[in-house]
Task: inverse folding
């Protein structure tokens, strides 16, 4: 009831706002850091801050992935908030290694510990000097204050930290390609690995949440599931034949650091979402690994093309509003353009000049009446849709309120998705993932066509 009243009070008229966000199109840095750390085998994320932050971050990930998400916390109280959290973190190392026995503790900070100014490398150094880190066990950290950036930044920072702490160059090549998949679903990471294997490319994926956040019910609880990138493989990334960072925002910092630190030749691409972005990924793999494109991949591409041609009359000219994160938005917008849809509104809470420039490169300049909110929020998007409606909204779960109020077909895409399932199990990336995106878009549009059709136009065959 409250939501309905609130939504009905969203005014179409936009009032300029510069210091107020309403319904943000992002969430906080540590959630991304936690997700990235979970993609490393035998690694326990640790939140250096209050219990409340850690509980929120764990619950956000648990609700999205429908899996228990483990993380420890420094449990700040008033004392730590005033005097700093060193004592809490040192105690936490003792407790975690003796009770939970991870190989790695991945510490990320919160707004509170960043504002206090805790020096995490100094605290880790002290723990090492005092023998609080057992032999063969490791601690790394990433700074993730939430008043800067978003969950995307936190993911990028933690992925980069693994390179910073562990990647080494020995001079003995592994002949592997290092692939940074970016913030995609566990199902997407599994799909990227399947494509690499179909191409015959030896690889290391970092991070890799497949086999961690999509585990089967076995009857036995595993605190550290069998998935995740192994520490030895992360160390050997410095000897990779080449590196590919997928998504400049999520993977760019780690991929660039691998290049500068270990001189691994690196290419940064768009996330392989949709036809053209997947083509670029496959072509780069072919060049970097020195392999031919396999028949299997060629057939998958052909099936996607077939669907695009068969269903073109349903997508042609449809207007779309998008909300999400920069890496996903760029590739998705390009795919929608390839489907001859018209991307009218795009909003992200993680702005940046690189994102704006790339989006323009991929789909062209905004036309009159279009809106590219960077930064922007869902409230502003709602207002735009009131001013000039669109045929389809693609956003995370929070878009459902706008879709209901505006009575517009809605496809859930991005993070978080709290009220539907499947995203952890069925991929969006690659040619097969693009088929799934098309399925979702077409079903949403056709459901609406059926719902609104008068009896004489209610067709059995679309
Ligand atoms: S925004 Fe800051 S204070 Fe709030 S949950 Fe995130 S880290 Fe904690």
Result:
């Amino acid at each position: 009831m409250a939501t309905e009243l609130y939504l009905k009070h969203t005014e179409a008229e936009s009032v300029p706002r510069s210091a107020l966000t309403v319904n943000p199109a992002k969430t906080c840095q540590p959630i991304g850091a936690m997700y990235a750390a979970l993609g490393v085998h035998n690694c326990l994320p640790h939140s250096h801050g209050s219990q409340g932050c850690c509980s929120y971050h764990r619950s956000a990930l648990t609700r999205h992935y429908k899996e228990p998400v483990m993380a420890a916390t420094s449990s700040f109280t008033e004392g730590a908030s005033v005097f700093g959290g060193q004592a809490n973190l040192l105690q936490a190392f003792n407790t975690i290694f003796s009770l939970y026995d991870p190989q790695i503790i991945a510490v990320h900070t919160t707004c509170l510990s960043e504002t206090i100014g805790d020096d995490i490398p100094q605290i880790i150094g002290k723990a090492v000097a005092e023998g609080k880190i057992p032999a063969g066990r490791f601690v790394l950290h990433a700074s993730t204050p939430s008043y800067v950036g978003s969950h995307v930044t936190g993911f990028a920072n933690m992925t980069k930290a693994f390179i910073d702490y562990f990647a080494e160059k020995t001079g003995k090549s592994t002949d592997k390609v290092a692939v940074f998949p970016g913030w995609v679903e566990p199902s997407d990471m599994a799909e990227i690995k399947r494509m690499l294997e179909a191409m015959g490319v030896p690889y290391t994926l970092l991070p890799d949440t497949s086999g961690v956040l999509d585990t089967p019910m076995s009857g036995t609880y595993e605190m550290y599931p069998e998935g995740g990138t192994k520490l030895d493989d992360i160390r050997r990334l410095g000897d990779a034949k080449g590196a590919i960072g997928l998504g400049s925002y999520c993977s760019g910092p780690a991929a660039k650091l691998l290049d500068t630190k270990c001189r691994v030749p690196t290419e940064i691409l768009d996330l392989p979402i949709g036809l053209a972005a997947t083509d670029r990924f496959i072509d780069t793999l072919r060049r970097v690994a020195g392999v031919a494109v396999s028949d299997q991949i060629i057939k998958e591409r052909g099936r996607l093309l077939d669907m695009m041609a068969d269903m073109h009359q349903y997508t042609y000219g449809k207007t779309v509003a998008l909300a999400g994160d920069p890496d996903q938005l760029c590739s998705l917008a390009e795919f929608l353009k390839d489907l001859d849809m018209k991307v009218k509104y795009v909003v992200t809470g993680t702005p940046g000049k690189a994102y704006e420039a790339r989006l323009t490169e991929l789909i062209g300049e905004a036309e009159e009446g279009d809106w590219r909110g960077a930064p922007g929020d869902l409230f502003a998007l709602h207002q735009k849709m009131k001013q000039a409606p669109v045929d389809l909204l693609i956003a995370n779960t929070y878009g459902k309120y706008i879709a209901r109020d505006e009575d517009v077909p809605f496809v859930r895409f991005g993070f978080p998705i709290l009220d539907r399932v499947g995203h952890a199990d069925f991929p969006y990336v690659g040619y097969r993932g693009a088929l799934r995106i098309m399925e979702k878009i077409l079903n949403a549009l056709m459901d609406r066509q059926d719902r609104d059709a008068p009896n004489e136009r209610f067709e059995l065959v679309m």
The pocket of iron/sulfur cluster is lined by residues 28, 30, 53, 56, 110-111, 146 (CB under 6 Å). The chain has three domains: 2-22+307-455, 29-165, 177-300. The first strand starts at residue 43 and ends at 48. The chain has a mean pLDDT of 96.
